[in-house]
Write a structure and sequence with these properties.
0% strand
Length: 68
């Protein structure tokens, strides 16, 4: 297995895309506040991220690279 690096901007894109919902979908306000906005704020302000965000970024990067 080869090791590949992923651009930080790509990781930010993946993290935000992992919580994106359709415009006609109503997200419960607690879920939005506790999960969606927190994830977006953490990656956009370079704050530490939680485990689930790291997992989403790892899986997303593999999918983007075609390693699936």
């Amino acid at each position: 297995m080869s090791r590949k690096s992923v651009n930080p901007e790509t990781l930010r894109y993946i993290a935000v895309a992992s919580v994106k919902t359709p415009t006609d979908f109503n997200v419960h306000k607690r879920i939005y506040k506790a999960h969606i906005s927190e994830r977006i704020n953490a990656v956009e302000s370079n704050r530490p991220i939680d485990w689930s965000t790291a997992e989403a970024m790892a899986i997303g990067s593999l999918l983007i690279q075609g390693d699936h």
